[in-house]
C-alpha cells in the first residue's frame, strides 16, 4: 500500500497540476487510450481540475466495448448448444448482442460459467471430457498471452474438447486508424501501461514519427495520469513527436519477451471488426493454422453470422473520441447500466459507465 499511496498523494498531485498550469500556453487535446484510465480520470475528477485549455478525450481502450456485435451473437449461439460449457470473464455476460446477452442465455438454461483465467477453462475441459468447453478470449495484448497459454497447454495435453472464441484486438492499428482520420484532432496519446508491459512501446515509435503525434506510456493512479498529461503537454508545446515512458516501474521498451514469443507462436495478426467503428486492418489476433482445430468459430460454424447496431447508440463515436457520453441522446434515458444499449455502458472500463458512475449524467438537461 505504501507505493500505491504515493501515487495518490494529493499534495504531489497538486504540484503536478501547478506545473501543468505553468506549462500550457495553447490548447492541448490528449486522448487516454485505456478505459481503466478513463475511470480513474472521472472518479478522481482529474478532467475537472485541469486548466480549461487541456481537454481529455476518451479512446477505444475498453476491450469489452470494442468486441464486435456479431462476435457477441456468435458467443450466444455457441453457448446455447446442448453439449457446450461456455466460459468467460464476468464483464462479458451483460454485453448486449442483437437480441440478447450471455446472462439471459444462462438464465434460459445454458451452461455459461464465469472464470478468472483461461486456464480455469482448460481445467474444466480436463474434468468434463464429454463436454465442449469454450473460452471467450477477449482483450488487448494484456490478456492475449493467457489465452495463448491455455490453447498451447490444451494442445500439449491432447485435449480436443477445448476451444477459443477469439476476439483479441491490438492497440497500435487502432491508434493509426484514429490519427489518419481526416477529422482527427488528437495532439497526443496516453498509452496504457499494462498493454505496454506485455507488448513494449517500440511499435508506437514509428507511429509517433509518421503522424507527428507524441505518446506517453502512463499508469492508472491519479499521479501517474497527471504526470502523463504533463509529459504529453511538454511534448505538444515543444513540437516533439516522441514516445516517452512515465511508467518505468512496470514497463520496458521491449515489453515482456517471453509473452511476445508465446503470442507469436500461437496467434497470427488479422483484420478485426471493432464494435461501433468497423474493420481495422491487421488489428486483431486469430489462431495460427497449427492451432486452428481449437478455433470455436470454425468448430461451431458461426463465422458467417452478422449483426446490426442499435440506431440510438453512439458508442462508436465515443470510442473514437469524437463525442462524450452526455452527448448521446440515449445516455441516462434509454441507456443505463441496468438497461444498456451498447457495451460502453456495460463494461467496467466503458466511458459511459464511468460517466454514469461519476454522476456526470446529472448535467444533462431534462425535458
Give a structural overview.
- The structure is a single chain.
- With 367 residues, this protein is an alpha/beta fold.
- It has 2 domains: 280 residues, Rossmann fold; 44 residues, no CATH class.
- The protein is 40% helix and 19% strand.
- It is built from 17 helices and 11 strands.
- The strands form 3 sheets. A 5-stranded parallel beta sheet has the order 2-1-7-8-9.
- The longest helix has 17 residues.
- It is globular.
- The N and C termini lie far apart (46 Å).
- The C terminus is likely disordered.
Quaternary state, please?
Answer: single chain
Q: Could you give me the name of the CATH homologous superfamily of the largest domain?
A: HypD, alpha/beta domain 2
- Could you give a short account of the major beta sheet? 5 strands, parallel
Distance N to C terminus = 46 Å
Tally of domains: 2
Give me the secondary-structure category: alpha/beta
Helix content: 25-40%
Q: Flag low-confidence runs.
A: 363-367
Please sum up the structure shown.
The protein has 367 residues and is of the alpha/beta class.
